[in-house]
């Protein structure tokens, strides 16, 4: 158990270190005169990255990471222009398609009801004394 905790802590430090190096590299490239788009370090891109990171950490179980990812993706896609085509025109449709695919492909939760109906017998033996 102790080695698992140490490995988990090492993974967190590695991920945080990579994130800080990437952010520092983007700042360095931007300050060096390279044309880096503003949306790369905006709040919605950070929200998108945080949602994906949370999903990765939880093996993409639950839906908290999905909400962050969808909101971040919608606002990030509004600022991306590829080949003079604004992706913001199709962002809503892409969000619905992604949500539908998630609902279709998410793993099913199987609830076992066999152990929930156990009989519990009352013990009144100490009342007779």
UniProtKB/TrEMBL annotation:
<keyword id="KW-0812">Transmembrane</keyword>
<protein>
    <recommendedName>
        <fullName>LiaF transmembrane domain-containing protein</fullName>
    </recommendedName>
</protein>
<dbReference type="Pfam" id="PF22570">
    <property type="entry name" value="LiaF-TM"/>
</dbReference>
<dbReference type="InterPro" id="IPR054331">
    <property type="entry name" value="LiaF_TM"/>
</dbReference>
<feature type="transmembrane region" description="Helical">
    <location>
        <begin position="12"/>
        <end position="30"/>
    </location>
</feature>
<keyword id="KW-0472">Membrane</keyword>
<feature type="transmembrane region" description="Helical">
    <location>
        <begin position="87"/>
        <end position="105"/>
    </location>
</feature>
<feature type="transmembrane region" description="Helical">
    <location>
        <begin position="63"/>
        <end position="81"/>
    </location>
</feature>
<feature type="transmembrane region" description="Helical">
    <location>
        <begin position="36"/>
        <end position="56"/>
    </location>
</feature>
<keyword id="KW-1133">Transmembrane helix</keyword>
<feature type="domain" description="LiaF transmembrane">
    <location>
        <begin position="16"/>
        <end position="110"/>
    </location>
</feature>
């Amino acid at each position: 158990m102790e080695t698992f905790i140490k490995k988990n802590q090492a993974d967190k430090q590695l991920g945080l270190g990579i994130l800080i190096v990437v952010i520092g590299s983007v700042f360095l490239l931007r300050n060096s005169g390279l044309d880096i788009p503003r949306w790369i370090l905006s709040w919605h891109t950070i929200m998108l990255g945080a949602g994906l990171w949370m999903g990765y950490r939880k093996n993409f179980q639950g839906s908290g990471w999905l909400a962050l990812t969808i909101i971040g993706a919608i606002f990030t896609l509004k600022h991306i222009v590829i080949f003079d085509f604004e992706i913001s025109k199709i962002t809503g449709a892409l969000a619905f398609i992604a949500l539908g695919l998630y609902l279709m492909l998410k793993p099913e939760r199987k609830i076992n009801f066999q152990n929930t109906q156990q009989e519990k017998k009352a013990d009144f033996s100490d009342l007779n004394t």
